[in-house]
Amino acid sequence: MSVLVAALLVLLLGDLGSTFFYHVPQHLWFTLHMRTHHDRRRSFWDQAVISLDPWILLDGFLGALPYIVVAILASRISWPGALIGLALGQLHVWWRHTTPIGWVTPKWLRAISRVFQIVLPEDHDGHHRNPNVEFGDIFRFYDAPARAMLAWLAPTSRANRRALSRRAKRSTRRVPARGTT
Ligand SMILES: [Zn+2]
Ligand SMILES: [Zn+2]
User: Fold this and answer.
1) Does the N terminus or the C terminus of the chain have fewer Cβ atoms within 10 A?
2) All structural domains of the chain with their residue ranges
């Protein structure tokens, strides 16, 4: 029983930490995850699973850090459980990036995954197509709060600041032009 609890804690709290303390902040304010995980020039099977590019590995490591922290704490409940949680988390990383190599989830597995709100490769594929949707690495119930957090903090985002400074530059350029006419 304690094995199961420890494994579940790693997956549930690890995904919670990774989504709200790494993934969403990266989408809002940083470039590492966007340049590596959302690089459209490469297949994301390649990016997430087989690449040895140090930046891609760094993004993967930082995303995994919350799971590792929770696993260290959960090892007090059961260390085999904590290790199983980490292993399942890693298997899920590989699995959720298999759509580029042709994975199609069978109906029965889709039905089970929907009950437990588990992210399917097809769901995560949606995040690679549109980086503003389908948050939560392992569990789908983190998607709605993650998108709410994104929307709430959008005014502080890099994209917004860049748009504002572009607009400011354009308007300062226009002012002297108007003065001469
Ligand atoms: Zn991905
Ligand atoms: Zn992302």
Assistant:
1) C
2) 2-159
